[in-house]
Structure formats: structure tokens, C-alpha cells
Write a structure and sequence with these properties.
Length: 469
């Protein structure tokens, strides 16, 4: 019997016998509050297609399923709802910029696999890509680097660009039409060289800071002892809030070295005045100032897991776990916090397939064994960092199919997942990607042999070492 090839795998499929031709003209969709917000029931049989959805969004999801059923499909009843509320992808448009048009293709692909969050990484050491009308210099000065030197990927000449408010709104609207929320990221207090280039007075030393041309973790971070730092941050956030209606705003917090804060009289003074025991607690204090600001505007923060190191960060934040040996994110979730899993070892889609084969991404269970209540893990997110990716074709090669594997984990209960079947279904799903303008990595590259994996891993790390020297 012909089976249905849908990604993500629907959670309950009943085959009713026989086949039917899908006629979009004979489609009846009803919204009912007897179902959950993202839950739908789709019946395709001789009488046509009937959709019952818990909301318009759920009806949209049913239609994504329908699109993948093809023109002729077995008669089925599909009862479906997601395993996780947050099903996201993250795009880094700092290290390399991706156009609004290409970003829309990623959004189309994400929508087709029922993802509902686009996390947009817009600020970092190598460029500030948000135009803020309150602080125009942030982008005007901070968006341009003198050259690019990312290991093997060296490009001479200036590289720059930023997104205007209209362009960012265009992305927000395009996403909204597909029931995707855009969570913008303004990464602070670390990864801020580009902002410091525009506002050198916000660095602890008050000296000129370059927009960085290579990958790294840099010691110049925003001075937490200078009141002007928060003035600038709040101004830029005010612009961000006007553009992005999302309940959550990502404020970064990863990889913030404390060397400058340790030496800075203003930071030390702040610590004394606020009774903060060390520089890590100062980061906690800084984060909480921003969280409080967002609260006054009715918004909340997402932070990378390093933000939990201080132990004082407000419990209203959502933590995005990427590398967390001490499992502070798990403790946070077990204390009633919300956690997103983006484990770098499984979900970073910029890593070569040799290091992160498709089945490794697919088979990863995002709920840590130590999590007491599964619902505290609100979901999964597949990031793609772009130091080594400077074309949309390469981006798609790295992202697909792994991002769709994360989408399936986000939607389909662990007990219904099957890696071999996913890979089979992906072949059918590739037609949809092709129509969108996305070419995934070919199957022979998805799961390299152990030998290939070892050699690729060694060559990747050799590249990393070259780039850090
Ligand atoms: C990260 O990869 N620094 C979040
Ligand atoms: Zn300082």
C-alpha cells in the first residue's frame, strides 16, 4: 500500500483504504476551539478534504501536510499536534549577509515543516546589522568591516550592510503570514565589537575598537559601569521593539570575557554600589536591567546559557542552551524556567556533516534525562552560523536536510520518530524545497563513513586553529 511521505511525520495516521485525488476546490476548513492552538485533524477521502484546526495557524499546518500528500494519496485521517511549542531556526546574518529574498526562501521552507520561530542573529563582533533610528551610528559605523578572514574563507575588501526598518518589517510580515514569529537577537554585553566601534566610549578602556574581521571571543565588551551603555542599549531596543512584535527578544549574553570588567574602575564601582560579589554577577545584574526594561514594554528575554552563570538572572527569561557542561540550563528548567535546546554538538548546522551527520542531529533527544518536567523544555532550534558560509547555495547545503530533522524532532513525538524513514521521506520532500529554490546536500553526504568523519573533523579543526592564530 502507498504510504504518505510527510515531514514532519504526523503523530497519528489512520489509513482509511483506497486512494483519492486531492482537489483543492473541494476543501472544507473549520476552526474549532475543541482542539489545541496548533492541533489539526485532516481527512482526505472520496468526499474531498476536510480540515479541523484549533486555530487558523493549525489550519495552515494542515495545509502544509496536504501539500506534501501530493495529487493522489491514500485515503487518510491525520490527527496531529506538535511535541514542542518552540520549533525554530536561527540565521546569522552578521558574519555573512543573506538577502531578504533568500531569507524568504528559508522562511518558506521552515513553514512547510511547521516551524514557528525564526531567530535572527543581527549583531556581533563582525557587524551591526540593525538600523536604529535612535542610534543610527550603530549601523552606519558598526556594519562595515575592513576585510574578512575566516580561516579558509578570506575575502579582501570592505564587507558591510545592514537591514533597514522596512526590510526587517518585510521579514516580520512575511513570517507572520506563515505563522512564524521572528525573534531578533541583539547580542550584549559580549560580541559587541561592532557596536563599540560606533560608540568607543562604551568600552571599559574608552579606546577605539575595530569591527572584527575574523572569528573569535573578544575582550572588549560593553562597560557595565557606564550609565550611557544602558541608555544606548535601551534606545536600540526601543527601535527593535517597534519593528519586531514578538513577545520574546533575544539579548545574547554568550561568551562575555570578564578581563576588562576586572580592570575597569567604573565596573568595579558598579559592583561595589550594587553589592555584586564578582564580575559574573555583574553580568547577571546587567542582564536583569535589560530584562526589567523589556518588562516595562510588555516583553521578555531569551538569553544564551552563559547568562545563567551568575545565578541571579530573573526567572522570567527563557534560556537557550547551546554549550552547558554544568547543565545550569537543566537546573534552571527544573526550577520552573523555560529552556530551548540548541545543543551545538547536535544542532549547529554550520558544522560539517563529517562532525554532525544527519542521523546524529535526527536521533538527538532534546529533553535531557535530568529534566523533571518535559514541558519546561519549550522546544528546539537549529542555528546556522555563517563565518564559513558566504553564499546562499552553501547555506542551503549545510542547513538541509539537518534543519528539517530538527523540525521533525520539534513536531513529532520521540516514539514516532525513525531516522531511516525520515531520510526516505526527505527525498519526496526535496521537490518542495526545489520549488522554493533550495538545493539540499545530496544523500551521499548526509552520513559520512567513520573514516570520512575523522578526516573531515581533523581538517575542520586545523582550519579552526589556523583561524585563531
Ligand atoms: C554561541 O554559539 N556562541 C551561542
Ligand atoms: Zn567597565
Amino acid at each position: 500500500m502507498k504510504r504518505i511521505d510527510v515531514i514532519p511525520m504526523p503523530n497519528k495516521i489512520t489509513y482509511l483504504g483506497g486512494e483519492t485525488k486531492i482537489n483543492p476546490e473541494k476543501l472544507a476548513a473549520t476552526v474549532s476551539d475543541s482542539l489545541e492552538q496548533e492541533e489539526y485533524v485532516l481527512t482526505a477521502d472520496k468526499n474531498g478534504v476536510q480540515i479541523l484546526g484549533g486555530s487558523e495557524k493549525a489550519v495552515f499546518y494542515a495545509k502544509q501536510t496536504l501539500l506534501q500528500l501530493g495529487e493522489v494519496c491514500p485515503c487518510v485521517k491525520i490527527e496531529d499536534k506538535p511535541a514542542f511549542a518552540h520549533r525554530g531556526f536561527m540565521l546569522d546574518t552578521v558574519r555573512h549577509i543573506f538577502s531578504v529574498e533568500d531569507t524568504k526562501k528559508l522562511i518558506d521552507a521552515a513553514a512547510s515543516v511547521k516551524m514557528n520561530v525564526m531567530h535572527w542573529h543581527l549583531t556581533d563582533d563582525q557587524g551591526f546589522r540593525i538600523y536604529s533610528s535612535r542610534r543610527p551610528d550603530a549601523a552606519l559605523k558598526g556594519s562595515v568591516r575592513k576585510s574578512s578572514d575566516f580561516g579558509r574563507l578570506k575575502e579582501s575588501g570592505e564587507y558591510g550592510g545592514y537591514f533597514t526598518a522596512d526590510e526587517m518589517k518585510e521579514i516580520v510580515d512575511y513570517c507572520a503570514e506563515r505563522y512564524i514569529t521572528v525573534i531578533p537577537e541583539f547580542d550584549i554585553p559580549g560580541h559587541s565589537s561592532a557596536l563599540l566601534h560606533a560608540f568607543p566610549q562604551l568600552s571599559c578602556k574608552g579606546e577605539e575598537v575595530e569591527v572584527k574581521t575574523s572569528q573569535g571571543i573578544y575582550e572588549d565588551i560593553l562597560c557595565a559601569g557606564n550609565d550611557e551603555t544602558l541608555d544606548v542599549v535601551f534606545d536600540i531596543l526601543s527601535d527593535i521593539l517597534e519593528i519586531f512584535p514578538s513577545e520574546y527578544i533575544h539579548i545574547g549574553g554568550d561568551e562575555a570575557p570578564k578581563a576588562r570588567w576586572k580592570e575597569c574602575p567604573h565596573c568595579q564601582e558598579r559592583m561595589k554600589k550594587e553589592g555584586l560579589k564578582d564580575e559574573e554577577t555583574l553580568q547577571g545584574w546587567f542582564t536583569n536591567q535589560v530584562v526589567e526594561f523589556l518588562k516595562t514594554k510588555g516583553r521578555k528575554a531569551v538569553v544564551w546559557n552563559e547568562s545563567l552563570k551568575s545565578g541571579v538572572v530573573d526567572g522570567s527569561v527563557t534560556v537557550q542552551m547551546w554549550m552547558d557542561k554544568k547543565k545550569l540550563s537543566v537546573d534552571f528548567a527544573n526550577d520552573g524556567g523555560r529552556m530551548i535546546n540548541s545543543d551545538f554538538f547536535h544542532y549547529y548546522c554550520d558544522y560539517p556533516y563529517g562532525m554532525t551527520p544527519l542521523i546524529k542531529t535526527y536521533n538527538y533527544n532534546p529533553v535531557d534525562k535530568k529534566i523533571k518536567d518535559k514541558s519546561s523544555v519549550i522546544g528546539v532550534e537549529a542555528p546556522i552560523w555563517t563565518e564559513y558560509i558566504n553564499s546562499f547555495e552553501h547555506l542551503c547545503h549545510m542547513f538541509f536536510p539537518r534543519v528539517t530533522a530538527v523540525a521533525e524532532t520539534g513536531w513529532t513525538y520521540e516514539t514516532n520518530k525513525n531516522a531511516a524513514d525520515f531520510q526516505r521521506r526527505f527525498m519526496a520532500y526535496s521537490d518542495i524545497l526545489k520549488k522554493i529554490g533550495i538545493i539540499p546536500a545530496p544523500p551521499e553526504e548526509w552520513n559520512p563513513s567513520l573514516f570520512d568523519r575523522l578526516t573531515k573533523t581533523v581538517s575542520f579543526f586545523t582550519g579552526v586553529m589556523k583561524r585563531n592564530n
